[in-house]
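Risk register update: the risk of archive-format incompatibility is retired. Evidence:
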Amino acid sequence: MKCDDFLLNYEAGSTVNRLQARLHARRCARCAVTRERLNELRKQLAAPAEISDYHRRVWERAAIDQAPEPVWRWVARPRLALAGGLAVAAALVVALVLSVPRNDEPQDGRIAEHFQPPTAQTVTTFLLGATPAEISELELGLNQIEVDLDDLAEEAARLEARQAISELAAMYQPLGSGDST
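Archived output:
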């Protein structure tokens, strides 16, 4: 360690740097004097300053005086009553909600019923009663759904590729400036 680096490492360095600075000060007389001056300065700054008798009496009088009692304004009590009323109302609502039995809980442990897709007979019956305009509207809607699903599949593929690229970039650190290999 150089003498120029001693002060910085002794005061603000890491644990290893401070240890190296102390070892350096044992061997270097100039840095040992600097270390002693710093220690003396620390002791002087840590010692409480002497105060005059006048200032001591002022501080003692300030310590004896008590803070004034808080004055309840006319709005404090209505606010307290309102807060208490709201707390009681909230407790009543919670008690009421907890006391009502639930009738929608499944009895056999299943959460949802199994969905049965419409059969061909149901679809045919629906389409027999439909007008040609309704059928063409349904065809247009189905075509639009197909286009939307294709767009969503492409977007999902793009998002998966972006995520893979982000994960790959996170695994490898970028080259530092000037590194070309």
